[in-house]
């Protein structure tokens, strides 16, 4: 199947995004690029992220998500809730009717937004969030959607949605609970308190915390280390690890065998 075209630089800019591929085509860096709005995101940001996910060349093995300026992301652009919405996008409150078809349309719209987050778990890529400053609400959930989080020591994580009368709906509740446990997740979400980088490391919300000036180098080192494993073995291993939590020990052992048989056949075919 032909790969879809990557969104143009103009389309990316309209969504508050930039995309760069390294020369080998193995690393895609997505930058949240509305620094004057602290990289606040809109519906278009998320649908464009989904489009990026569908259109990246198959050579891409690592996706880094980072933010321009002092904050990773201040979450949803609060204008999305205003009567006017954001230019070119409908206000979420305006769409919120109680008729079944209104509910169905909202559900469908949120699913389209979630698609911008879900692809980051794909086995053929490893996604890395490079977080400096605030990651609030939808921004925190974007970091949670990534496989790995590298935090600058000034990072501040906050699940703000319940404080605004909402729920976190951009796929963040599952990874949050898996990482910190349901009790801590309840506390973090309902208090909407801000978690420092140091506490994030203790809560397993960060794989690595580094001084802010070292963030880019730390991410580059991690990316180089992740690229060391052969692509097919890396993808098969990630697929296996993703299944582990939902599987019984026997199911997982069976999955390991099935994956290893494929690896051994592929390796022996290579001679
Ligand atoms: N939506 C729209 N504009 C925003 C947002 C946002 N989420 N966050 C910041 N901005 C704008 C500010 O209005 C300000 O604009 P101005 O220069 O025209 O006044 C500019 O970005 C800079 O913001 P400051 O607040 O001055 O930046 P500071 O670094 O002091 O604080 C912080 C950053 C903590 C992120 C703060 O901006 C903030 O709390 N923002 C709102 C966060 C929020 O509630 N997000 C929604 C979460 S729920 C969800 O995502 C679903």
TrEMBL record:
Matches recorded under InterPro entries: ClpP/crotonase-like_dom_sf, Ech1-like, Enoyl-CoA_hyd/isom_CS, Enoyl-CoA_hydra/iso, Enoyl-CoA_hydra_C
A molecular-function term among this protein's GO annotations: isomerase activity
A biological-process GO annotation: fatty acid metabolic process
Record Pfam families: ECH_1 (PF00378)
Keyword line: Fatty acid metabolism, Isomerase, Lipid metabolism
CDD domains in the cross-refs: crotonase-like
Pathway annotation from the record: Lipid metabolism; fatty acid beta-oxidation
Transmembrane spans: none
Family of the protein in this entry: Belongs to the enoyl-CoA hydratase/isomerase family.
Protein name, entry field: Enoyl-CoA hydratase/carnithine racemase
Species per Swiss-Prot/TrEMBL record: Spinactinospora alkalitolerans
């Amino acid at each position: 199947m032909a790969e879809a075209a990557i969104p143009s630089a103009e389309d990316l800019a309209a969504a508050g995004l930039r995309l760069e591929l390294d020369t080998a085509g193995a690393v895609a860096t997505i930058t949240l690029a509305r620094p004057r709005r602290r990289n606040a995101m809109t519906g278009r940001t998320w649908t464009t992220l989904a489009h990026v996910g569908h259109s990246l060349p198959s050579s891409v093995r690592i996706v880094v998500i980072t933010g321009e300026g002092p904050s990773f992301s201040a979450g949803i652009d609060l204008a999305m809730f205003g009567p006017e919405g954001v230019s070119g996008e409908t206000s979420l409150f305006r769409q919120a009717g109680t008729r079944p078809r209104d509910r169905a349309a909202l559900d469908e719209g949120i699913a389209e937004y979630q698609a911008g987050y879900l692809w980051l778990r794909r086995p053929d890529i490893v996604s890395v969030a490079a977080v400096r400053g605030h990651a609030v609400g939808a921004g925190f959930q974007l970091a949670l959607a990534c496989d790995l989080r590298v935090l600058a020591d000034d990072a501040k994580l906050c699940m703000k949605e319940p404080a605004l009368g909402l729920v976190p709906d951009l796929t963040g509740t599952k990874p949050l609970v898996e990482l910190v446990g349901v009790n801590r997740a309840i506390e973090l979400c309902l208090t909407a308190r801000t978690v420092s980088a140091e506490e994030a490391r203790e809560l397993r919300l960060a794989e690595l915390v580094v001084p802010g000036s070292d963030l880019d180098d730390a991410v580059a080192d991690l990316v180089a280390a992740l690229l060391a494993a052969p692509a097919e073995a890396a993808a098969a291993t990630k697929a296996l690890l993703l299944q582990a939590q939902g599987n019984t020990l026997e199911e997982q052992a069976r999955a390991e065998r099935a994956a290893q048989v494929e690896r051994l056949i592929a390796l022996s075919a290579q001679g």
